[in-house]
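Reading a protein record of the kind used here takes only a little practice. Think of the row as the fold of the chain written in a discrete alphabet. A record is reproduced here so that you can trace the correspondence yourselves:
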Amino acid sequence: MNTQLNLDKSAMVLSIVCALHCLFVPSFLILSSGFLTISIDSTLVHQLLLILVVPVSLYALISGYRNHKITWVFLSGVSGLILLFLAVLLGPNILGEFYEKALTLMGSTIVAFSHLKNYQVCRKRDCVCHD
């Protein structure tokens, strides 16, 4: 496999992990509250995921744009990253828990969709970005 395809796959997986964290960790904590003696700091997890997602996604989106010249895929991916960044920056204290989760889910969905499109274009064109 080539680097571009692997980067897009990795970025999609990281975005999905972010979305799953938002959707299922609160439910898991509520259902298992009697068994858990430690709590998971959601803000810290979001920050760590963002530290992983941003470099991988940006590198894949920039590489994809350089190879395929599809502006909307690049811009939609960057828009999704901005939403993720805003969700972490503003957090539940400013946005409220519901809107923080909504912003995170929208951002991660947009990022994953952008990488999926990048991946599909790369596979379809069998372009020079393949190693």
User: Anything to note?
Assistant: The radius of gyration is 16 Å. Residues 3-125 form one domain. The chain has four helices and no strands.
